[in-house]
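User: Hi! Is it possible to get a structure for several chains at once, not just one? Here's what I have:
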Amino acid sequence: MFNAFSHLLIRDLRLALRNRHELANPLIFFVLVVSLFPLAVTPTPDALRAMAPGVIWVSALLAVLLSLDRLFKQDYEDGSLDQLMLSPNPLMILVLAKVLAHWLLTGLPLVIIAPLLGLFMSLPMEAVNVLIYSLLLGTPVLSLVGAIGVSLTVAVNRGGVLLSLIILPLYIPILIFGANAVDVAADGMPVRGQLLFLGAVLALALSLAPLATAVALRITASR
Amino acid sequence: MPVSTMFEVQSLECVRDDRLLFSGLNFSLAESEVLQIEGANGCGKTSLLRIICGLRLAEAGQVLWQGESIQSNREDYYSNMVYIGHLPCVKAELTVMENVRSLLDTRSLTVSDAVIEEALAKVGLATYEDVTGKALSSGQRRRILLAFVALSRAKLWILDEPLTALDVQGVALMESMIIEHRQAGGSVIFTTHHGMQLDCEMRSVRLGGQGNGALSDV
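Assistant: Yes, the chains can be modeled jointly so their relative placement is included. Here is the combined structure:
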């Protein structure tokens, strides 16, 4: 079982590394959106600092949302998804491998580049640290929950709008707590509560989302 | 008379878009048996194969593997069954070798490089190990699947139109693979619109028209 997990993870990472332009898309989107904001509004340090948590979190969320399509689309179109479902291994383990690969390729690069953008938006150092923690806890949830939506819409032609409609309501708590944690840290107040909430949601998503995704994939395949 | 029934479907019914494709379908399969599903386009052959794979749910009836329903006997069934459908399952970015290996990995099979190379040589991809999927023709992609089926160690092969895109040698290769598999005690369920000249005993199930799901010996 562990072998099937690691082999699928390695396969997905290898596929992505051979398709680099696609890999860079969410990251470029993230950097572009955040760096356009100071140009569009009055770029005083105070104004930037006030909107930085929201801007960075919204951009990260949209960058993940735009990349979700990649999670199952190719496997669905070339029939590999059927083979995954016919594996003697539990489907949710394989789903977890695919989601982990997705996070390593989209969420993690965002977490790594975010501190730079935070400083660029003149966030204080403590807030930048909290930004890293909140993204580190929040982006895996975005991948995990997103996987449920993608597995429901992968068979729908141009399912992008539908996907957003299903997923965005579920993303909103993460957005609120993630951005709020950074906001509060910028004011020099404790953020333990927000981070613990994000951690709890991550634990919940990690245990339930692969199961829900596996069921959703079986529904998709049965049509 | 079948020696031991390993696979059985009982009163299967399939409805697609409010259209009844078949109902009350029964057949069974023992070791070393080859079964062809026949019928016109749109009569439900692919749906039937997806149901017996467990990919699709039947409206009624059940599919049994070794006397137990495939849902409750899932792990054993999927370790002993291999399915290939219309789609090639080949990744354009991976080499032929990596493609075969990733297909085998989902089944948790550890196979040495030498064995895979041998299987690839057998399906006519001897010098293509390091060629990426992108550069292959559709017939060559299908041949990757043939190598996968041969290496899958499955007792039951479920093949949906296995001859698609294959040339004359490819068809002959598929035929010899089925006969070889049968001699080793394996069973095959397949559909095809191309003439498959199988030099062995074979049964067929005809879908659609009168006598829905009638079983006939060929």
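Strands of chain B lie at 5-16, 19-30, 34-38, 60-65, 68-69, 81-84, 156-160, 187-191, 203-206, 214-217. Residues 5-217 of chain B form a domain with the Rossmann fold fold (CATH 3.40.50.300).

User: Great, thank you!
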